[in-house]
Amino acid sequence: MQGTAEYSETKSDKLGAAADFLQKYRWAFVSVLLAFIAIAATSQSAVKLFWWDELASYDVAKLPHAADVWSFFRAGLDTPSPVPTLIVQATLHLIGSTEVLARLPFEIGFFLMCLCLYGVTARRYSAGYALAALILPALMGAFYFASELRTYGIVLGAVSVSLYCWQNVERRGPTRILGLLGIFAGLALSILCHAFAIFVMVPFTVAQFTRDWRARRIDIPVWIAMLLAPICLVTELPGMHAAHQYYGSSFWAKPNLSAMIWSYSYALGTGWMIAVILLLLACPPLQRRFAAARTPGTDRGFSVPEWVMIALLAAQPLIAWPFSHFIGVYVARYTIALTIGVTLLIVAAIAEATKRNRLTGFALALIFAVAFAQDKHRMISEAMHSHQALAVQLQQQPWVKVLEESSLPVIAPNTPVYTQLQHYASPALEPRLYYTLNTPSALRLDEDPGAELSMKLFSTRLPFLRVQEFSDFTRQHPSFLILVESPLPPSFNPGNYTTHLIGSYKAPEKFGVSYFSVYQVDVNSQ
Description:
- The protein has helices spanning 2-24, 26-46, 52-61, 66-74, 82-94, 99-102, 104-122, 127-135, 152-167, 174-193, 201-215, 220-228, 237-247, 257-263, 270-289, 304-314, 316-327, 338-353, 358-385, 390-395, 398-405, 415-424, 449-458, 470-476; strands at 410-411, 433-437, 467-469, 479-484, 497-506, 515-523.
- It is α/β, with parallel strands linked by helices and 526 residues long.
- A six-stranded mixed sheet has the order 3-2-1-4-6-5, with helices on both faces.
């Protein structure tokens, strides 16, 4: 029995030393994890084609001047903010236009969120928990937007910077001034990038009220920094109003309960959750056996205002969804800032449930790191072994080769399919590609009325998008090819048209549509 006790004590000392080592060299571990996240995000970007939502920004960003982009959005021709598109425009001019380079600012935003979450947690808990908070967002659905040419990565980064600055703004001197500027800049940028980010004001205001109430004083500079941020949205209100006039009745995503619930699917995953549950079950006996891994006295945990902040950030869908009924729009990813709150809530709750034990923090970080490596290694391998540009990969698809071998004009009556083909098509095929409005339903892919309206409005400023009424197109082109999702039914009667199936093809997942069928259509003379 004595030997067993001595062995346990020796083992406990080693674990305590390992926890001390992790704490001492925490920045080395931070650097390694951030490097892995960057590699995974870059790999994801390298194997993913631009698609419609990205190309809506990319194509507008190709306008000559920033004033042209601002005019486009001020006219209400698209619903999002012009700021992400202006960032893309600067990226195209200064860095490059490949998939990896064009998405780089949004990857940096996600990267910044991970670093800020580490900093927020490291101020209150040991290094293991802080590293777990750094890596956990990369295991969530939000990681997809680390390599998406859309605003969400920047929103996550900007809100996280505001949170990091708010947590430490009570300190005096230059640190406080920088903190106030960080709160304002982060909130203002997030709101300018996406109007739904206005709802992050709820956690900040309620948490600051809680802090002031407990301190028995009002921190006026912090309130000024926070409340000035939403005013910047005034600059975008004319464009938002004009866009609502165009798209309000046809926008595809109306508020419903399932959409609100779906918001949380971005933050949940069965694999790492099961691992965390097993860890929690194993912790009590481990803590009793390895006393040297006990909680350091410096780990004081989140304060009450900080718990209020992260809980309300995690509740973003619950806050935004009721208000979304007034504007008639709700998309699950619009409240993606919940990722910040959910991450901190999970890590801090585990820390408190296990009495901030350093062994648990170390194990949690290790579990998340292993899960991340297991989840991303195939994608990284694919990117490393891919020797063809994405444009070449698309051009080698059988349905694209069929289109290229013909000399007939081609209709792709679906916004995602048309814009992707238009962007990646060879010089021989691109001039023959058209998008047609009011295409007969049997001759079109599943198309949303709002997307068709977007193509009509976009073409007024982007002449390289060849958009025509279907009736006008058929008068000019008596024979053409059309790309549809599945073979037409045998009973289909196109009226004044004769259709001939050229071929049906299965498409890889990266192209968005599972199957393509190519038809030749001839207009019958009357």
